[in-house]
Every structure is written in C-alpha cells, then in structure tokens.
Amino acid sequence: MELVDWTPPPCPTCGADEMYHKLVSHIPSSKAFRTLNGWYCGKCHAGAFQLGNVTESDAVRFAISLINK
Ligand SMILES: [Zn+2]
C-alpha cells in the first residue's frame, strides 16, 4: 500500500519533492515494519526514511481506516 497525500518533506538524499509513503508491514513486531515502512523517494528511490510527525503506528491506523471505508 502506498499513501501519497501526506505532504512529506523533500527527499533528504536528492532534495526532490517526490516522496511517497510505503507501508510494507502492518505488524509492529516484524522486522519489515521497523526497517521497511516509511518514506521513499520517487526520484532517486532512497528510503526508507522516518520523516515528519507521522509514526509508523499512525500509518497503520490510517491505512486501516481507509480499508474500512
Ligand atoms: Zn531522492
């Protein structure tokens, strides 16, 4: 799942304003949740970055809220 409308900061690596959030795992205890969830750059593909005030737990709740609509 990719979440694209959170207005993240620009890419820390290349400065492009093309960041998107990727939620790889919904399971907080999993390695993928800790290492792969976060912001990725659409231009240079750097990531995952933990940016802004959105925690990965918030991301999971947001994703679930979308699924339940
Ligand atoms: Zn970049």
What does this structure look like?
This protein has one domain (2-67). The mean pLDDT is 84. The protein has helices spanning 31-35, 56-67; strands spanning 2-3, 19-22, 38-41. It is globular, with a radius of gyration of 12 Å. Strands 1-2-3 form a three-stranded antiparallel beta sheet, with no helix packed on it. It is 25% helix and 14% strand. The chain contains two helices and three strands; from the N terminus they run E-E-H-E-H. It is of the alpha+beta class and 69 residues long. The structure holds zinc ion.
- What is the structural class? alpha+beta
Strand content: 5-15%
Note poorly predicted spans: none
Query: Given the C-alpha coordinates, what overall shape results?
Result: globular
Number of helices: 2
Q: Whole-number average pLDDT?
A: 84
The Rg value, from CA coordinates, equals 12 Å
Q: What is the terminal separation in angstroms?
A: 15 Å
Q: What's the total number of strands?
A: 3
- Helix fraction bin: 10-25%
Largest sheet: 3 strands, antiparallel
* H-E string: EEHEH
Q: What small-molecule ligands were found?
A: zinc ion
Q: Which strand order do you get reading across the main beta sheet?
A: 1-2-3
Number of domains: 1
Organism: Aliivibrio fischeri (Vibrio fischeri)
Protein name: Phage protein
